[in-house]
Amino acid sequence: KNQVEQSPQSLIILEGKNCTLQCNYTVSPFSNLRWYKQDTGRGPVSLTIMTFSENTKSNGRYTATLDADTKQSSLHITASQLSDSASYICVVSDRGSTLGRLYFGRGTQLTVWP
Amino acid sequence: EADIYQTPRYLVIGTGKKITLECSQTMGHDKMYWYQQDPGMELHLIHYSYGVNSTEKGDLSSESTVSRIRTEHFPLTLESARPSHTSQYLCASSEPLKGGNTIYFGEGSWLTVV
Residues B39-50: pLDDT tens digits? Predict the structure, then answer.
């Protein structure tokens, strides 16, 4: 069964600290992996997209890594800010269909305290 | 910045009422999607469209219906709302996913049925 599991479910850190969020998936055949940031009550916003051949991608203070062999990805946030408080969702796409089906994790709820 | 818009953002309606959630995008994307998301839970695909006059049901069974008469417009309709329909509905659009293209989400429509 194709699944996307994220950990931790929730995380509280102090402003200025770094943190790493995890995503494990069983989706096959794999096409690409996306990380999204979703503020409370808003739609998800794309942070990074990685295909099979990419193992790291950065977007400002956000750095995503991908290990396609172990089917794991991580999102590292550097020097956290209060505005980083949000849910971070891992989304994996397969290539077994024309649509390129998406599988969503439940997200990690990050809270940054001052 | 995503050019995809949803209205209304928030709506409270009575049981049995008919409601249409509007979604429009100005990016010329052929693929559009409707997702349903309960608080703290993952997104579930309820409808998608490859293009004009093309609509398909998603993974999660839904009593809603959709139409795609114009490329930019993908409305979702509930003929008779029930309390179980209370949820957040997210519209999205993209170029072909296999290319690793970004999926753009709207801000969401929060529906409460009383």
Answer: 888 899 999 998
